[in-house]
């Protein structure tokens, strides 16, 4: 039978081995044979949206904008600026790798169209 000191020393040394040993994870990173993740090009989508609706000479007229978004372009921009100033989630953010996410214009466009047409985000 072990004395109290020997047992304590054995327990302490067992704990050190566990901390030093590499942790085996249930799942690894990328799985061999699987396709790589496709990074969406949010910058290109933002530029396209800007050229179609918000540029100085947009492709679609003010009439078309009003029909699509159910408001004037100037009102949309005022609302977008107010929402971005108020809510952090509507600002353009970066992920952990430094990749830019959706622009404020894209986020507000999606939200406004959802409100205008009454659809839900998960539809």
UniProtKB/TrEMBL annotation:
The protein's superkingdom reads Eukaryota
Residue ranges annotated as compositionally biased, kind Basic and acidic residues, are: 9-21
Renumbered to this chain, region (Disordered) spans 1-38
Q: What is this protein called?
A: Putative terpenoid cylase protein prenyltransferase alpha-alpha toroid
Naturally occurring in which organism (per UniProt): Phytophthora infestans (Potato late blight agent)
């Amino acid at each position: 039978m072990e004395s109290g000191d020997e047992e304590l020393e054995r327990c302490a040394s067992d704990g050190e081995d566990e901390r030093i040993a590499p942790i085996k994870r249930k799942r690894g990173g990328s799985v061999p044979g699987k396709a790589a993740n496709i990074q969406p090009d949010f910058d290109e989508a933002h530029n396209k949206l800007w050229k179609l609706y918000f540029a100085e000479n947009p492709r679609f007229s003010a009439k078309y904008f009003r029909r699509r978004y159910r408001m004037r372009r100037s009102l949309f921009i005022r609302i977008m600026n107010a929402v971005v100033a108020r809510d952090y989630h509507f600002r353009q953010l970066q992920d952990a790798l430094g990749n830019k996410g959706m622009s404020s214009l894209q986020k507000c466009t999606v939200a406004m169209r959802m409100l205008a047409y009454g659809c839900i985000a998960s539809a």
